[in-house]
Amino acid sequence: MPQVSIGMPVYNGERLLERSLGALVGQSFQDFELIISDNASTDATAEICQRYAREDQRIRYVRQPANIGAVANFLFVLDQAQAPYYMWAAHDDVWAPTFISANHDVLAKRQDVVLSVSQAEFVNDAGEVVDTGSTGTEALLGSPRSNVRHYLKDPGQNSRFYGLHRTAVIRQCVTRGRPVWADDWLIMARTLKFGKHYETSECLFRRSPDGSSSQAEVMIAKMYPSALFRALPMLPFTWAVLTDPLVPKSCGACWHLLNWNKRYFRHWLRAHRHPPNSMADRMQRLDGKLRRLSRKLQRLVGIRESL
Questions:
Q1: Does residue 40 contact residue 64 with C-beta atoms inside 8 Å?
Q2: Alpha carbons 205 and 169: distance in angstroms, whole number
Q3: Cα 46 from chain centre
Q4: Mean pLDDT, rounded, for 218-228
Q5: pLDDT band (50, 70, 90) for residue 218
Q6: Residues in CB range of 121: below 8 A, 6 or more apart
C-alpha cells in the first residue's frame, strides 16, 4: 500500500495537464499513487493521461463514460484512495519537488495535525506572481473553536484544501449530499474538529489564478435558481455551519458568518441596477438599516472585527 494517494479530477485540461503531471511524478517522495478521473473530456486529456499511465505504474487512469459533474468527480478520486494520506491535485497547478515530502514529514511526526500545506502563490500564464490577497494556507494551531473562528474570518483562496490530509479525516468531512456555495470552506471547517492545520515555512505550491467575480456570479446562479439565494449565496453555507455537528461553534464564528453574508449581499447590490421601490431597492435600504443595527450590536455585546 502506498503512503500517499493523489486524486486528480480533470475535464478538458490538455493545455496545462502535462506540466502538472510532470511536477507530480517528479516529486522527491516516491511512495504514492496518482488517481486521475477524466470527466469525459473532449480534448486531448485522455491521450496525455494514458501516455503517463503507461510510463508510470503508480498512475491509475479512469475515464468516466459520461460527465458526472465536478463535485462527483472530486469525490470519486477520494473514494479510490488506498493510502493513509491524501491530497487533491488540480490539473493546472504546480508543486515543487519537495511538496509531498515536506508535508508528509509533518503529518508523520505530529498526530495532532490533520492537514499540512506549504505556503502558496498564484502565477499567471506569463509566469508572473498575481496578488490574490490571502492564499489561505495560514497555520491553525489553537483550540478547535479558536481555529474555526480564525479560519472563517478570512479563508482567502483556501489553498489549504489542496494540502496533504489524513485520509480517514477528510473522508468524514466531505459533503455527500447537495453541496452549498463555498462548500470547500465547510469541508475545511469540519476537519478542524479532528485536529490542527499546519503551514510549512517554504513556498512549494503554485496555483493558477481563480476565475473572475463575474464567473462566480454565473456559478452561483447555476447552483441557486432562487433570487433570494443569488442575492445571499452565503445563507445556505451559514445554515450548514450552524447546524453541522462537526463544526465547532463560537460567537466569533457567528460574527464572521454574518460579515460574509453582508459582503456578498453588498456585492450583489452593487452589481445590479434597481428601479425605485423595487424589491431590490427595498433590500438595499434594508441593508443600510442592518449596517446601523450591526454597529449597535457591536457596541452592545462587545464583539469586534478582531475576533
A1: yes
A2: 22
A3: 26
A4: 89
A5: confident
A6: 129, 135, 203, 205, 206, 207
Residue pointed to by grid coordinates 511536477? 23
Beta-strand (E) ranges in 92-184? 94-95, 113-123, 129-130, 164-166
CATH architecture group of domain 4-207 = Alpha-Beta Complex (3.90)
pLDDT recorded at residue 277:
57
* Beta carbons of 5 and 171 less than 8 angstroms apart: no
- Exposure letters 123-147 (e unless 16+ CB within 10 A, then b): beeeeeeeebeebbbbbbbeebbbb
Residues in the chain: 307
C-alpha triplet 279, 281, 286: angle, nearest 5°:
90
Q: Higher model confidence: residue 16 or residue 306?
A: 16
What are the pLDDT digits (tens) for 181-217? Answer: 999 999 999 999 999 999 999 999 999 886 545 578 8
How many percent of the chain have pLDDT more than 70? 87
Residue 247 C-alpha cell reads as: 463544526
CA angle 287, 289, 295 (to 5 degrees): 105
With cell 449565496, the residue in question is 233
For residue 62, with 0-12 CB atoms within 10 Å meaning exposed, 13-18 middle and 19 or more buried, which class applies?
middle
297-305 CB contacts, 8 Å cutoff, 24+ apart: 301/251, 303/251, 303/252, 303/255, 305/259
Q: Rounded to whole angstroms, what are the CA distances from 119 to 96, 136, 156, 161, 197? A: 11, 9, 13, 12, 12
Task: Tell me the domain boundaries of the chain.
Answer: 4-207, 213-301
Distance of CA 77 to CAs 8, 148, 162, 258, Å? Answer: 7, 27, 13, 34
Q: What is 218-240 written as a DSSP string? A: HHHHHH--SHHHHH-THHHHHHH
The string of DSSP letters for 208-220 reads PPPPPHHHHHHHH
